[in-house]
Amino acid sequence: MNLAAIGFTAPWLLVALVLLPVLWVLLRAVPPAPIRRRFPGVALLLGLRDEDSAADRTPWWLLLLRMLALAAVIVAMAGPVLNPRGADEVRSTGKLLVLMDASWASARDWEAERDLLDGLLAEAGRDGRPVALMRLSDPQPPEFQAADAWRSRLAGLEPSAWAPRAEMMRRAADLLDGQAFDTLWLSDGLARDGRGALLEALETAGAVRVHQTGQPLLALAPPASVDGALELSAQRLAAGPARDITVLAHGRDPAGTPRVLATLPLRFAQGERHATGALNLPGELRARLSRFEIAGQGHAGAVALTDDSLRRREVALIAGREDREGLELLSPLHFLERALEPNAALMGGALMEVLPARPDVIVLADVATLSEGETAALLEWTDAGGMLLRFAGPRLAASDISRGREDPLMPVRLRAGGRSVGGAMSWGAPKVLAPFAEDSPFVGLAIPDDVTVSAQVMAQPDPTLASRVIAQLGDGTPLVTRKRIGQGQVVLFHVTANAEWSSLPLSGLFVQMLERLAISSGAAAPVAEDMAGTTWQALQVLDGFGTLRDAGTLPGVAGEALLTAPLGPDLRPGIYEGEDRRIARSVLGAEDTLAAAQWPEGTDIQGLERTAETPLAGWILAAALLLLGGDVIASLALSGRLMPLRAAALLAGLLMLPDPSVAQERAPELLADEVTLAHVLTGEKALDDLAHAGLRGLGETLFYRTTVEPSPPRGVDLEADELAFFPLLYWPVTPAQPIPSDAAYAKLNAYLRSGGLILFDTRDADIAGFSASSENGARLQRLAAPLDIPPLEPVPSDHVLTRAFYLLQDFPGRYAGRPVWVEAAPEGARQAPGMPFRDLNDGVTPVVIGGNDWVAAWAVDEVGAPLRPVGRGYAGERQREMALRFGVNLVMHVLTGNYKSDQVHVPALLDRLGQ
Amino acid sequence: MSQPAAPSATLRARSEAEAARLPPLLARAQHLAGSVLLGQHGRRRAGQGDDFWQYRPVQEGDQRRQIDWRRSARSDAEFVREREWQIAQTLMIWVDGAASMRFSSDRNLPEKADRAQLLALATAILLDKGGERVGLTGHALPPRRGAAQIARLASMLAGAEAGADYGAPDARGLAPQGHALFVSDCLGDIEPVRRALTGAADRGVRGVLMQVLDPVEEAFPYRGRAIFDSVGGTLSHETLKADDLRDRYLTRLAERKDALRGLCAAVGWQYHCHHTDAPAQAALLWLYGALGGGAGR
Q: Which of A44, A46, A55 sits opposite B240 (nearest CB)?
């Protein structure tokens, strides 16, 4: 039985569906079971008849629900299957060979291939067929095993980064020769030699079915450098409608993090199989490129690796002389710029500005003296592989650099003055170049006749001189010398970089020499002859998905094979390193083109998608269970046993979230609006509450008596709170309070320096005179030790605290008569004659230290009644009043500073005005 | 195989159980009674009593020994000292102990019986403080005064066994011209109530009928097919659609209340309906007012 895409394994069970109408009638006849309730009022109910005896039968929709549930169970028992395998697929029990191309071209659809393979293996397992799996890109002798054994190994299957070669296919055919099996061929869809022969061999062994993807395949050729730009060309397997793709240029950013450095959109025109675009990148970026990739492809063919051939050397040109205006041809750098411009990225600027950019070459044209720092930086740079190219000139000749002792940044010692030949005042003719020696980098360069040298700096004869000369004049004097420093080198041209001393910069030889010195070169493509006999080591290799992996211990590759041999397990696409350069081998060569596989007529070709058989019984049973659950709820609701209100209340209770705690802290900007007195939280609740009440009492007093109208006081956590908003910090000292952290002390010191005042209160009547012999005193010493506190003295009788608002002589709190300490007056403060007070300079004392327990005297409760007793009777109230006056004076002092001190000048001012 | 416990042991266990139950009821009743401010309810007229009422000049017919010599010595006339007339009233209480009272619809609500006992005992305490005598009907507890009587009352109220499904007022032992307090749900047959009230009225007893109902009995919030059983299990009623019955049930309940109210009015009693979800104090205040008014006037 087969209904469209659904089949049943036990269709005769569906006959049971005819029972449903019977059940309908049965269920309809039976009303729901009653609930027994205890109810005293039943006596009043006796004799009441139901008006509608049929009304409480099971409602039709509930019956329908139950019918549906039952029908679902019956249908599920009949074993429904989605997409059953049709009778057209032959069920065979013979051996099955799964042949995979497993090349880079399969990598993009690898997941689909693996899923397909999983389904095929599952089927083969159900049919009990032995299965062998063979990868054409790496053929191994086939092992026929149970399909489940292969399924467990599927996750480890990966595509290769190369394509199967003809000899691999031949080898596979040899391995399979003489056996009988059916074949499933998972092909990548690319044309290649040897496939026809293999297919014939397989068809003689049994039936062959080919699965290959229908998705268009894209690949990227290696980039080429054309006119200073990078030319990228992509191709696709089959021409089709126009398509836009994006090529990503991957590389490392200056921090070394891999990222996409640039993108290049490419467009395949309709019917075209190739798309080409040029990417113009600054040399800086070009040097950091590592690979190009077509976005969203995910296979090795869409990745093109880059190597040294793309890099442009960065050359920094630094001249010793300022350019003279209008005399461009005499500029020491003019000819260098002309020679280097086409192939290298030039930069200019001061030496120390250029060095951080890590140029490949730094040219110093007639630069004689370098500072110590510059020398050290240059040496470090050279040591790390930089090339320093120096040119001589009048300055170098005139300086004593590298005279007595060889300069680290000069290849040779120089003789003073240099020499001039062939000038008007000399005998000799200008010198010509001698042929280059065999070991010179310039060997083989033709020397034009018109290159003459009329002046040069002379090298001191030295034991090492001969080995450092790489070019010399006809008379044997060095023209170019070279010294290696670490991985780098210093090259000195003994002539100027312009045409003043020689005609060398005017000749083509100059450019060739620079190229040979790898200053402007490095971009030439490797030639097979150069590569002969060399061995290249793989640094990184591509896997089939186009990811660069560490090459590990792959064996070296011969140079000639590296360039031309086809890719395979012994030559993987990747980056190879030789003696002084790197060569990249991408999957696709510059000339390779993709072609679609051509299968002979009559081959069974299918796509990768295959709908799997899905048994539906589980789902339908689950639906039946849901329906029955709904029936339970509906039945309960109908019989009144479901308590929606209670359930809803429970749900609401569960959902109800606790009130977000109301933020009680005031925002800093609010604090800054008003004067806020603050006390340091000691961690003792009673004391903190008392301090809070005390500051509240003081605040109220200020509010009533002065124009200071403070906002409610605030407890301050030294670790967490910002102190800058509080003019006054009351700090009660207890033996138990913790020492603040260093960060808190930093904050406190900043607070004190910016004009804050801390009132320390030991609250012990200062019985020990702040020595460590009282607990509070000891704690005070420890608390205050890290603070930035100036020298202190007991409040002098003319201190501004005594008259900031009230005239006071002592400062009682709950205790009276003990001295209070403030910042000491500066030395030499004198009392002017006729003045009541000394002429003290300004400033607010940063600390006031006492032990009179002021907050206890200030503290009031919510309605303004004093909290703590002070003294006895009227005298006590007087003392409380004095304590409050001290508080007022203190706040006035903090807020107005030495304002009251200045009042002492008033008599003098009035006196003057009177005259 | 169950061994019947020795009678003494049973008695002791039961009395301990009772004793354990008693203090809470008594304490709660005391607490409730304490919330009502007591006033003297003297008769505001001269008569037999302890408290001084007034001096009045001797009139014809006064005996010599009634003259208050101390007062008369201060003036020429002779005075008689009169005392305020104080009489002790008798309150007989009947609390329905039937099974139907042992019902509460919600865990947070007290049983009707519990509320009824609480109200009755609190009333008794209040009246006892006011000098009245309190007892139980049906010769169960003759009216007396004092803390011991209250304790006995509490014990008998708390120890009442559930008997029939619906209770009938026990009007025996009512003191003539006294007062009575009947507390019941009055859901059973109304005839016994009618007989009891008319019988009491015949003997000059005035009083209060307090109907205690559970909120469920007022609301009838049931739906669907249900079988309603009485608490004692003797009555049951099956319905297919309980929600259909609601209106008719409520009509019957209203009729029952009207009948009770009419009955009370006819015999000069006062009727009040109290629900267990309402605070007991309000009911107690009403009770005290109703009884005090009855006793005081």
A: A55
- Look at residue B15 and tell me if it is in a domain: no
Please indicate, yes or no, whether residues B156 and B177 belong to a single structural domain of this protein: yes
Strands B90-95 and B133-136 turn out to be parallel
A36 CB neighbours in chain B (<8 A) are 226-227, 229
Q: Torsions phi, psi of A471, nearest 5? A: -155, 140
Q: For residue B177, what is the domain's CATH number?
A: 3.40.50.410
Does one domain contain both B139 and B265?
yes
Residue with tokens 């030319």: A231
In A, which residues are within 8 Å of B229 by CB distance? 36-39, 42
Chain B touched by A638 (CB under 8 Å): yes
Chain B residues with beta carbon closer than 8 angstroms to that of A52 = 241, 244
* DSSP label of A328: G
- Test B225 with A33 for CB contact under 8 angstroms: yes
| CB < 8 Å to B222, chain A | 37, 39, 640
Measuring CA to CA, which residue among A519, A619, A525, A611 is closest to residue A564? A525
Classify residue A265 by its DSSP letter: E
Cβ-based burial of B20 (10 A; exposed 0-12, middle 13-18, buried ≥19): exposed
A145-172 pLDDT tens trace:
888 888 888 888 888 888 888 888 888 8
Lowest mean pLDDT among A696-700, A850-854, B224-228: B224-228
- Angle (CA) A70-A76-A82 rounded to 5° is 140
Contact map slice: A 35-54 vs B, CB within 8 A? 35-46, 48, 50-53
Q: How far apart are CA A886 and CA A805, in angstroms?
A: 9
Do B68 and B211 fall within a single domain? no
Q: Which residue of B has its CA nearest to A51?
A: B244
Residue type, B161: E
Report pLDDT for A529: 64
Residue B259, domain member (yes or no): yes
Quote the ipTM score.
0.73
Is B220–A35 a contact, with Cβ atoms under 8 angstroms apart? no
Residue B6: inside a domain: no
Asked whether the beta carbons of residue A31 and residue B217 sit closer than 8 angstroms, the reply is no
Say if B276 falls within a structural domain.
Answer: yes
Average pLDDT over residues A199-216: 83
A556-574 residue pLDDT tens:
888 878 877 888 888 888 8
Total tally of structural domains belonging to chain B? 2
Chain B residue numbers with beta carbons less than 8 Å from the beta carbon of A636 are: none
- Ranges of residues in chain B with a pLDDT under 70 are 1-28, 31, 34-51, 84-88, 162, 292-297
Nearest CA in chain A to B102: A40
> Distance (Å, rounded) from C-alpha B154 to C-alpha B33?
14
Determine the structural domain holding residue B264 and report its residue range: 20-37+88-296
Q: Is the pLDDT of residue A659 over 60?
A: no
Q: Identify whether residues B64 and B181 lie together within a single domain.
A: no
Cα(A555)–Cα(A184) distance, rounded to whole angstroms?
Answer: 34
User: A152-174 burial, b for 16+ CB within 10 Å, e for fewer?
Assistant: eeeeeeebbbbbbbeebbbbbbe
Query: Do B75 and B205 sit in the same domain of this protein?
Result: no
Domains and CATH numbers, chain A: 96-217+595-612 (3.40.50.410), 218-310+540-585 (2.60.40), 319-516 (3.40.50.880), 668-906 (3.40.50.12140)
pLDDT confidence bin for A903, thresholds 50/70/90: low
pLDDT mean over A815-831: 77
Cβ atoms within 10 Å, residue A752: 20
Torsion angle, CA of A558/A562/A566/A569, rounded to 10 degrees? 60
**Smallest CA–CA distance from B167 into chain A, residue:** A40
